[in-house]
Specification:
- By secondary structure, this protein is mainly α.
- The protein has a domain of about 80 residues: Multidrug-efflux Transporter Regulator, Chain: A, Domain 2.
- About 60% of the residues lie in helices and about 5% in strands.
- It contains seven helices and two strands, in the order E-H-H-E-H-H-H-H-H.
- A two-stranded antiparallel sheet has the order 1-2.
- The chain is elongated, with a radius of gyration of 25 Å.
């Protein structure tokens, strides 16, 4: 990625920046508060004005968030994007760690899918007191159902 450099030519108000970037105005202000975006200059009347560099940074942040990168990971990527500050290897390391996190989440979601599919398959659709779906959602029901099933199988002695 080429370095994100400053260019104050556009003078975009926050509403226009929001529209062009697809990022909500309150989210833009939040990114300023948490120092993801530098504080913009203001007009004499106090209105924020942004340039094309801000638009590019905001689009980068938005896309990174869409891909699931954390704010800290995005900060690191932005720091690495400065001129002469990063190697592709450093960026790859951040992306590789993130990919590992995504793969772990996918594994967890597959386990969750199997559990829920088995539970739904056990559900007769009849009465709520015997509903396995409600049993796994309600901790109290789960405990009592577990105790009842253990007693019935003779394992609770």
């Amino acid at each position: 990625m080429r370095a994100i450099t400053s260019s104050r030519a556009a003078n975009l108000p926050i509403g226009e920046l929001s529209k062009r970037s697809g990022v909500n105005i309150e989210t833009i202000r939040y990114y300023e508060r948490v120092k993801m975006l530098p504080p913009p200059p203001r007009t004499a009347s106090g209105r924020r004005v942004y340039d094309l560099t801000d638009l590019r940074m905001l689009a980068f942040i938005r896309r990174s968030r869409e891909l699931g990168f954390s704010l800290d990971e995005i900060r690191a990527l932005l720091r690495l994007g400065g001129p002469g500050q990063a190697s592709c290897g450093e960026v790859r390391d951040i992306a590789t760690r993130h990919l590992g996190d995504i793969r772990a989440k996918i594994t967890d979601l597959r386990k969750l899918e199997r559990l829920l599919a088995k539970t739904v398959a056990r559900c007769s659709g009849n009465t709520a007191p015997d509903c396995p779906v409600l049993d796994i959602l309600d901790m109290q029901r789960s405990k009592s159902s577990f105790r009842v099933s253990m007693s019935a199988s003779g394992q609770n002695r």
